[in-house]
Amino acid sequence: MPALLKIENLHVAVKGTEILKGIDLELNEGETLALLGPNGHGKSTLLGTIMGNPIYEVTEGNIAFKGQDVLAMKVDERSKAGLFLAMQYPAEIPGVNSSDFLKAAMNARRSKPLTLFEFYSKLQAAYKAVGIPFEMNNRNLNEGFSGGEKKRSEILQMLLLEPDLAMLDEIDSGLDVDAMQIVASAIKEEQAKGRSFLVVSHYARLYSMINPTRAAVIINGRVAVDGGPELIKRIDAEGYEWIKRELGIEIAKEESAMNEVSIGVCATRVAAKEGK
Ligand SMILES: Nc1ncnc2c1ncn2[C@@H]1O[C@H](COP(=O)(O)OP(=O)(O)OP(=O)(O)O)[C@@H](O)[C@H]1O
Ligand SMILES: [Mg+2]
Q1: Residue of 11, 12, 14, 89 to mutate, ligand 1, most atoms within 8 A of C-beta
Q2: Closest CA to 36 of 256, 261, 237, 265
């Protein structure tokens, strides 16, 4: 059976700087792939590129999903084809009502629109599943949502859109312990239906709840290691230093990645380091 997602020699630049430098990665149907790697090495860039965020410029390589050329598709076509991205930093969308947005997104995938009854039944069930008060469907999308509410809201969208491949970018960051359980159960239910996942997280906790079938580590814009879930435990215990040692990979210093960044950001980082 051909891979559900096949990425070959993917090179991606952001504002003229090459971030992904030849990613090769495959994901089969029903798999849950854990994607790890140090900060700033290209995980979100990879997910954003697969989904079609125009800030990421593909300079070389291919992405195929269900055998289709993803790079030739617009964002909404990618979504209709069954791709979904829960973003690391979900954007606030003032002026867009949550339930209007969800209804439009769901109907875009169907030949016949949902009846109002069907829509509200599904909506109510999804709000219940992620533990957000149903009244929040009247609020603008993500506007003023707490960090955890934004993350739950991404999972709510996933439940309603039923993607074949859900890419979850640090979905566990900022979640309280109960929310982590809720999100893990939602993922497990989808896994049981045979759906596939690409999950980025820095922590073993979520992974231990959803049992990835494989793990890959992105370092310096490439897949440095690809293996079984035991990789997650080793990284959790030992960090990334051993990869550098064993594979002779030089992990780029953060400073070089920060060269392009404005003084303001650096000043904030210094202040944060000094505990201000
Ligand atoms: N919009 C952008 N403008 C400028 N640089 C960017 C932009 N997006 C990403 N980059 C740079 O690309 C590099 C990779 O970023 P990316 O967000 O993919 O890292 P990551 O592996 O997801 O890190 P983290 O674990 O911290 O989320 C970083 O050096 C980052 O500063
Ligand atoms: Mg990221």
Answers
A1: 14
A2: 237
